[in-house]
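I am still getting used to backbone structure tokens and would like to learn alongside you. To get us started, please write out a protein record for me. Once you have written the record down, we can walk along the chain together.
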Amino acid sequence: MTTRERLIQEISQISEEIVEELLDFLLFTQARRNQQKEPKTPRPYALCQGEFTVPADFDDPLPDEILQDFENPL
């Protein structure tokens, strides 16, 4: 039995509500596959060079009060 035949068999045994949901999903996946994907051009290296500086303490550990906010959020 092919996949298509199995699908038709299963569809014939389920409620109309689920068939509608299945049809919705099928149409969604078909539309998504048919969308044209625009090729992404890579961003130039050093695009923002000179616009900001990274502080010298950037890699230092965070203070305890900030770490506590991450570990125990409100």
